[in-house]
Structures are given as structure tokens and as C-alpha cells.
Amino acid sequence: MSNLLNQLKQHSFIVADTGDFESIRKYQPRDSTTNPSLLLKAVELPEYKDLVDKTLADAKKEAPQANKTLGVAMDKLGIAFGLEILKIVPGRVSTEVDARLSFDTEATKDKARSLISRYEKAGMSRDRILIKIASTWEGICAAKQLTREGIHCNLTLLFSFPQAVACAEAGVQLVSPFVGRIFDWYKKSSGRDSYPSAEDPGVLSVTEIYHYYKKFGHATEVMGASFRNIGEILELAGCDLLTISPSLLEELQKGTGSVPRKLSKENSAQCKLNKVSYDEKSFRWSFNENQMATEKLSEGIRTFAADTVKLEKIVTDRLQKS
Predict the structure, then answer these.
(1) Catalytic residue of the set 9, 76, 109, 132
(2) What is the Cα–Cα distance from 265 to 238, expressed in whole angstroms?
(3) pLDDT per residue as tens digits for the range 262-273
(4) What is the per-residue pLDDT across 154-199, written as a single tens digit (0 to 9) for each?
(5) Would residue 26 show up in a list of annotated catalytic residues for this protein?
(6) What CATH architecture does domain 4-317 belong to?
(7) How far apart are CA 300 and CA 268, in angstroms?
(8) pLDDT per residue over 58-87, tens digit each?
(9) What are residue 241's DSSP bridge partners?
(10) Can you say whether residue 238 is alpha, beta or left, with left for phi > 0 and alpha for psi between -120 and 50 degrees?
(11) Diameter of the chain by CA atoms?
């Protein structure tokens, strides 16, 4: 019998949630996604020293002014890892906008355009790039305009139905609802040690979003993310995409058994769901009413921002030594 990973690939596109090139080669996902936390881990690995050193040397040539070198180096580093990943995967790579811009629509748009321009100057088509933006109201507004400009966006740190609806109405390419972080919050809040996979709050959130998109004809792709165990993953078999860490990809590759499809457009059509819409005021209120989502979005932005600062320190130290 085929392993769990190969069977899962029959129902959903698999995305590697890592900046490690060898892991990507091993599990052969269609796409790959990175974030500041993953890049922070990657740049400290000795096997990427040459890539990092070359990227930083190029940054110093492009922006020799001390007050500009770091910003250019950070952008070039994300692009460098993205380009290497695109040599391995047949599909797309996600590159993240600085989380500290999460509440600044104009700055988010400017950064996204800059990142796409760098990819295109390196000879890479924008169709293979997803710009990751936090699912704040400001981020969604930025993504709406960027989408009109032909820049494909991945709206990340998504924890609630209002965020998902607003993203779909903005016409974004893809959303990344965070299964595991939702699970973490409810586990802590309820005092429970675990949930059956079919009752996992993160799984239920992604399932609702998937069915809503398919029932009402939204083209935005749903990519389940941030998994804590393979039970969550298998319960979402059929979701458009699933982005999975190397440790869970390994567990799926070693696992055996059947993987039935759980999500499908046919099932979505039978769901009793009402079509809704949000303007800024109703979005902010509905989102504010969801304690889990407000806490996890805030925490996620802070974590990514903190890891970006740590990465900047490493880059600064290496620039000074080079």
C-alpha cells in the first residue's frame, strides 16, 4: 500500500513549510513557503553560509550607504532563499513582507512591489511568487490592490471566518488558516489535552472556510497551515493545499493506511451556509469578538517581528565582519 504522503498528494497539493533545501528535495512538494522564523533557522546552518555570504556581499555593492545596506540585505536574503527553492519545486514559493508593516497598507504594497521586482530582475516570473501578508484589515486592503496589479498574495496568520471572507472578497490568490495555533489556544483555554481530529477547532475552522469558498464560487485557494499532528492533516485531505513541516512530512511518508478524501466541492454544495460580507467596521467588530483570533494574530505578528529583529542582528554582524 502507498504511504500516507503519496495518498494525500492525490487529494491536495503538498507544500513544504521550511527553508531547508534538502527537506524540500526529499519530500517533493509542489510549492514551498517560508517565514522569518524559518529563515532565521536556515541562515544559522553551516550549509547555507556561502549563499548568505554572497547575498550580503551583493547587498553591500548595491547599497554601500550604511543606513541602507541592512534593508537591502534583508530583502535580498529572502529572495535568495526563494530562488534556490524555486530550482527545486515545480510550483511557487511564498516570500513574506516584514510583519512590522502589518498595519500599514501603503508600506506593505511598496514592499511587495519591491520584492516582485527583485524576483523579476533575477529572471523569475511573478506567477511563481506568492507575497505573504498578515491578514489584518490593512494587509487585506494592500493585497486587494496588489492582486489588481498581477501580484499574487498569500494571506497568512489567518484565524477567523471574517478574515477569510474579507480575503476572498479582495480576490487574493491564497489564504493560510493556521490549524495548529487555533488548536493550541483552545487546548490551553479549555484545559483539555487533546481533541479528536474531526473535532479539532483548527480543523473545523479550515473546513468551514473551504466549504464557504467552494459553495459561493470564490476562487481564492485554501492552504491549511501550522499543523501539530498528522491527524489534523488527514482530516483536511482534499483541501486545496496543505503546508507541512519536515517532521510531519516524514511521519506521513513512513505511515501506512488509507487516506479518504474529506473535503470536496460536492460536499460544499450541500452545506447550509449563508453568504456574508464585511466592510471595515463590521470586519473589525466581528474580528474583535473572536478572542482566540485577536490573541493569535497579535501573537503571530509579534513573533514574526521578533524573529525578523533577530535575523537583522545576525545579518548586521555578518555585514560588519565582511
Answers:
(1) 132
(2) 9
(3) 999 999 999 999
(4) 999 999 999 999 999 999 999 999 999 999 999 999 999 999 999 9
(5) no
(6) Alpha-Beta Barrel (3.20)
(7) 30
(8) 999 999 998 899 999 999 999 999 999 999
(9) 13, 223
(10) left
(11) 62
